[in-house]
Amino acid sequence: MPEHDNKQTDPKRLYFLGGFLVAVLSIYIGVLFNTQYYEGDRYLEQSVRTITKTETIQASRGVITDRNGRELVSNRQTYNLTFDTGLLKKGDDKNAAILRLIQLLREQGLTWEDHLPVSKAAPYAYTVDEVSSTSRSWFNSFLQKKMELVSTDLKDADLTGEMLNTAGLSANLLIKTMRETYEIPSAWSDADARDVLGVLYELSVRDVSFASAYIMVSDIDASLISILNDGNYLGAKVVSAAARQYLTPYAAHVLGIVGAMNAQDQENPAYQDYPRDAIVGHSGAEWAFEEYLHGKNGTRVLSTNSEGKITGEYYKTEPQPGSTVELTLDLSLQAATEDALAAAVTKMNAEDHDQTRGAAAAVVQVGSGEVLALASYPTFQLETYSQNVNALNQDPGSPQLNRATMGTYPPGSTLKPLTAVAALETGATTLTEKIRDTGVWYYPGDTSGSYARCWYHPGHGLQNITQAITNSCNYFFAEMGYRMKMDTLREYLSAFGLGKSTGIEIGDRAGTLPENAAGQDQAPWAAFGQANQLYTPLQLANYIATLVSGGEHCQAHLLKAVKSYDGGSVLAVGSTKAENMVEISPSTLNAVKTGMKGLTTGSLSAYFKNCVVDAGAKTGTAQLGKNITNNGVFVCFAPYDDPEIAVAVVIEHGNTGSALASTAVEIINAYFTAGDAGAVILGENQLLP
Known about the structure:
Layout: H1 11-38, H2 40-51, E1 52-57, E2 64-65, E3 71-83, H3 94-107, H4 133-146, H5 161-166, H6 171-181, H7 190-208, E4 215-217, H8 222-231, E5 236-246, H9 252-255, E6 258-260, H10 263-266, E7 279-281, H11 284-288, H12 290-293, E8 298-304, E9 310-317, E10 324-327, H13 331-352, E11 359-365, E12 371-377, H14 385-394, H15 403-406, H16 416-426, E13 435-437, E14 440-442, E15 451-453, E16 461-463, H17 465-471, H18 474-495, H19 523-526, H20 537-548, E17 552-554, E18 559-563, E19 570-573, E20 578-581, H21 586-600, H22 605-608, E21 616-622, E22 631-638, E23 645-651, H23 661-672
Parallel strand pairs: 2-10
Antiparallel strand pairs: 1-8, 2-3, 3-4, 3-5, 6-7, 8-9, 10-18, 11-12, 11-23, 13-16, 14-15, 17-20, 18-19, 21-22, 22-23
């Protein structure tokens, strides 16, 4: 009988084995816990990244309204065609897909974005000297980083067609190199190859220039969308977008234009987070209030399956629309001002066939500096600006020039009320002093015979300061200039805001204060608006507003308020505080205003008899030289007793300022007869202006 082994299993071995299993299980649980709890987000992000892609969702631009809440510029939904290589599956021919899409666009008569600065037909030539600074920068980055054909030290500004040709990189060689690099079939025609290379270039520069997604065609219609959906065009993608919608044909110069960022924009620290071809304001309110209007882009994550089909999407960051900018403009008054100005110029042009004549008008609220209307003629339409920009650039009438803020003109006799204030406040004359106007004022002690001739050659006889304003007596004001001298006159001109920027947000010219040439005293002539001084219509309107307010000089401004896009809060308001005070005694103010009223009840009564309120005014004739029709300048205020608005009108080659009186009366009547016509019904939760 065999012997059985009665030896028991060693407990230590069991303990060791059990401990080992427990340790392994603990490590496994620990790693699993760490992976799920502490590192879960990181691993999830990594896994998501392998099956998703992120795209930028552009925020809609903010709305611009007038002071009454009427929308002037908003947005409309559009659809853009893009080419997205991420939609192509493995094995798809990218070049063939692009060509097929191009052929469709050709059939539809559509053009697509192609900024490759090389001519479209062989033999090829560079067009880099003709493109924008942004396009030049893209091209330089492409040559340096993508094609590696030029030195990375080459600056954008140095890139020219001549430089590239001299360096041995002709346009023909570049196209040949690009065809090889992008594997364009040799059987393709030059035209097909060049068009496809243009699209490939657009896609490539976005890899090296941090530009936003390539938009092949903007604002496509429903018929094209239907064809794209039915035709299975590989890589084609239709995306919704927002385009600027202009709800008024007026105020083009004030509202301004938008466009892709240029080189100057790219150097602006405020735009450092923008894509290099982001849409920004380039002029007017669009430019001035860019920080409020731009909004913040969002980020959307799309998940796809192995075949590239979208299986889900979510917003990583919601886009935030731009804020609402409320301007000080009154749309009804703006329209009336532009229409009155256009009618006056059209009538003058018909009479003398001067088709290059321009004009401008400004209406400023007394005591606040708020600009109620700002008109420039000729003007243009924002809705069709991009289509007409070349014609506008070549128009001899310079319709893009905002003459109200950027046009500078001699003030002529419209300066006499200011000179009167300075003379009375400095003691150069008194309210009771009378000076005899003999028709010609001679500079005292000047043996060379320097003189100033009064427009009324026989002379006005004895004139006090109020009469001198009403009669626009050059003799009287030449004497005031002689007594005060240039330094005193310049001090008052500056205090009234002349010769410096008004502060308006869209920008303006400072104008030019008069000054003495070496060894000369020009003050007598400067005192009645001559002597090489130039001011903008807006400056003249603001000076009159300062005068009739009793000396409150406010910065002219267009910003009424900025409101959050949902209307829930006010983010900023325009300042209505006085920038400085001009000392004007009540007696001085009364004398000057009385003189200005004497004009509306006297020589201009034929025009002002139709004015719905009493007003004060001053004409001006800006002399341009022999055989040149003078500019007409006109300033006024209303109502007379408690002024609310100041108006300035300038018509180039308009001759005497009195010819502009009817235009000014139309503007005044439009303001005071508006009543409830400009009221709007406010929606729920909207803020009152």
